[in-house]
Amino acid sequence: MTWYAAHIIMAVKYKRGVQRRFPVWENVVLIQAATEAQAFAKAEAIGLRDASDDDGSMYWGGRLARWEFSGIRKLTECALLSERPSDSDEVTYHELEFTSSAAVERYANGQPAEARHVDQIRLMARPERQPKARRKRA
């Protein structure tokens, strides 16, 4: 069995009215599976299970809302030193690009910084879940 880190995307959706901002959490969950396809299926099941409105009691920014499962952004095989995750193992990563070393420093210190996400994501077990290319309007 192999350990994977699944990046599960959960979005806040308001139940009423216009929504101009879309808060998103990228939850990273450890999954043990025999194959990448099994890990992907487990990750999807977790995302679907976590989609809810807390029995109608969820509010975001003072508005009734719900968590919506948006998909699996990335599935990485963990680089473990033994059979189980332990201290100092690498379980996942993000590849980012900044326009300055000052922005890198702000990011490293937990401050807002503009970055470009440039993860090189391979096709996973369920390629139909990959975003489709958008056509340019003439």
Tell me, rounded to a whole number, the average pLDDT.
Answer: 86
- Lateral arrangement of strands in the main beta sheet: 2-1-4-3
Give helix and strand order, one letter per element, not per position. Answer: EEHEEEHE
Structural class of the helices, strands and pairings?
alpha+beta
Shape: flat
Q: State the helix count.
A: 2
Structure description:
- The protein is built from two helices and six strands; from the N terminus they run ββαβββαβ.
- With 138 residues, the protein is an alpha+beta fold.
- The protein has a domain at 2-93.
- The strands form two sheets. Strands 2-1-4-3 form a four-stranded antiparallel sheet, with helices on one face. It has a two-stranded antiparallel ribbon with strand order 5-6.
- Residues 129-138 have low confidence and may be disordered.
Which helices and strands occur, and which strands form pairs?
Blueprint: E1 2-14, E2 24-33, H1 36-50, E3 59-60, E4 63-77, E5 96-97, H2 101-108, E6 116-117
Antiparallel strand pairs: 1-2, 1-4, 3-4, 5-6
Quick overview of this protein structure:
17% of the residues lie in helices and 32% in strands. It is built from 2 helices and 6 strands, in the order ββαβββαβ.
What brief labels describe this structure?
flat, 17% helix, alpha+beta, four-stranded antiparallel sheet, single chain, 32% strand
